[in-house]
């Protein structure tokens, strides 16, 4: 298997895992833990709300970096697709 394929698959797996983690923590923050003053003391599954917020923030940042790497690895493909779409019009 070529190095390029391994890099692309690794980035895609990282994107999936970080997106799923961000989604789960976002749903917990949105639907389970209350918002407002003094809500930082609330816990879910033994984890304080502030930890959920930090986890959500950092995982989302890692996802954004993985997305940028994904776009960089596939830049030639994206530019070729845009050119083909513009030629059809």
Task: Give the SSE string.
Answer: HEEHH
Spans where pLDDT lies below 50 across 5 or more residues: none
- The count of helical stretches stands at 3
Q: Indicate the percent of residues in helices.
A: over 70%
On the 0 to 100 scale, the average pLDDT is 89
Binned strand content: under 5%
Main sheet attributes: strand count, strand direction, barrel closure: 2 strands, antiparallel
Approximate shape: elongated
Description:
By secondary structure, the chain is mostly helical. Helix content is about 80%, strand content about 5%. The chain has a two-stranded antiparallel sheet. A hairpin with a 2-residue loop joins β1 and β2 (about 45-50). α1 (about 5-30) runs antiparallel to α2.
Provide a concise account of the structure shown.
With 89 residues, this protein is mainly α. Helices cover 78% and strands 4% of the residues.
Please tag this protein with its features.
89 residues, mainly alpha, 2 strands
Q: Which helices and strands occur, and which strands form pairs?
A:
Elements: H1 3-32, E1 43-44, E2 47-48, H2 49-73, H3 75-88
Antiparallel strand pairs: 1-2
Helix pairs in contact: 1-2
């Amino acid at each position: 298997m070529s190095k390029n394929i391994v890099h692309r698959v690794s980035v895609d797996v990282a994107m999936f895992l970080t997106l799923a983690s961000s989604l789960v923590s976002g749903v917990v923050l949105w639907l389970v833990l209350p918002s407002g003053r003094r809500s930082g003391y609330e816990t879910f599954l033994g984890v304080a709300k502030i930890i959920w917020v930090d986890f959500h923030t950092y995982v989302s940042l890692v996802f954004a970096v993985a997305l940028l790497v994904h776009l960089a690895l596939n830049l030639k493909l994206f530019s070729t697709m845009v050119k083909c779409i513009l030629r059809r019009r």
